[in-house]
Here is the input.
Amino acid sequence: MKMRRVAVIGIGITEFGELWDASFRKLGIGAGLAAVEDAKISADQIDAMYVGNMSAGRFIRQEHVAALIADYSGLARDHIPATRVEAAGASGGLALRQGFLAVASGLHDIVVVGGAEKMTDVSDMESSMIQSSAADQEWETELGATFASLHALIATRHMHDYGTTREQLADVAVKNHRHGSLNPKAQFRREITRDVVLRSPIVASPLRMFDCAPSSDGAAAVVLCPLDAAKKYAETPVEITGSGQASDSLALHHRKDICTMAATKVAAERAFKMAGLSQKDVQVVEVHDNFTISEILAVEDMGFFPKGEGGKATEEGRTSLGGDVAVNTSGGLKARGDPIGATGVAQAVEIVTQLRGKADKRQVKDAAVGLAQNVGGTGATVVVHIFRRA
Amino acid sequence: MATAPRFWRENPSRYNLFGFKCNSCGRYNFPPRIICPVCRRKSVGKMEPVKLKGTGTIFSFTEVHEGMDEQNMQKPYIVAMVELDEGTKITGQVIDCDARDLSIGTKVRTTLRKLSEEGSAGVIHYGYKFIPICEGTKVAPQDE
Here is the structure.
């Protein structure tokens, strides 16, 4: 099938954090309006909208949020199709993929992709229970496994099989906080030391508080259109050259090897194949570091470093700004924040910002190709997108 | 709060470790599946219910300090992924031991325990947890 080439022509993002005065709809509209303004389009040019959201039903007791956002952004006046996409933590990346497919197929010309989550209207306990529902509720969660503890099982095994150290896990958080300190939209903009991580309270051994991404409120949005029309709207259009998605068993225990997220591997292979690019072409990467161990798996599984060497690469600064490949220049989920449904779209916003050369103090020099990896659950859904400055 | 049937229908597996053996490839599945995830259509009509022995070894484990409401009274508690002797892996708590005494490869067996309760007047949920098998002790099948 001949597909059209697709470009990002607008990006928008709200502040991430504990935003007591911001409602779900205020966040969603804020990001959407910013993206539409950035693309310099008017509302009546928009053909369709996709919204990534994991669990508004449990966080704010509101389902049907795509219609809600369409209504409050004035798009329901023209009755545009508005679709919510859910794949736990990968909801945002998957919404982006749906928007990409809609434009690539020729069905729609201008599509807005948003992602939003309002997490702090419930208690921390309730919030972690909702996050745990991304795992197998009946055969993991109800047996006592928290979402953090499932990642702790991965970390324990990775340390056992490959000699990854507790300090190397800490180095992921230290790096992402350092990057976050350079991002004015990040939830945490303060640098931390290894010691801060290693002295923070244990959540599920070996993972401590500073190994875990926070609960956040926030939203992000991008505007897509066919590449051949992109120059009309954007000074520096960014093409989505590859989109890969893969699934795996819902429960972590049904995987032969828990130190590899097979879905990450497959989704990345599919995206690289579509883009006709390889790892060495990529300068900037956003990965799903909901826990520090997740970033180590991500950089290994996507082939940036050999299996078992992600921790060492982090320790040696090879994933930092100025390293071999800059990973999570936004601060990642750890420091930028992780409003679940917004995260995958926020990753795209960061990559586009980098490829436009507008990332200011955290700019990766001569960034031309970027990649975003967005994970649902413990790796049962993974979406990978590759972007290139057009 | 969920109704009782939400949990009750899982009791054969929660209480007695009922799983399914695929007689197409010979793999054991837990919890029960209608089709074998490997053989797919070839497994239709060949999935045989079996009771798993409940013995296995620790594949990975963690001590949980930030638990969920139901487990609050037990914190910290240990969660392990256990590779059963039949080859399938399952997740559950390890009890009656200290995390320092466990390692990857430690032999464990299942035992029936209370998992959680829904408030003081709600449903009480029971199911499997693991206890370490001490060297030299004779292992009885699951104590029930």
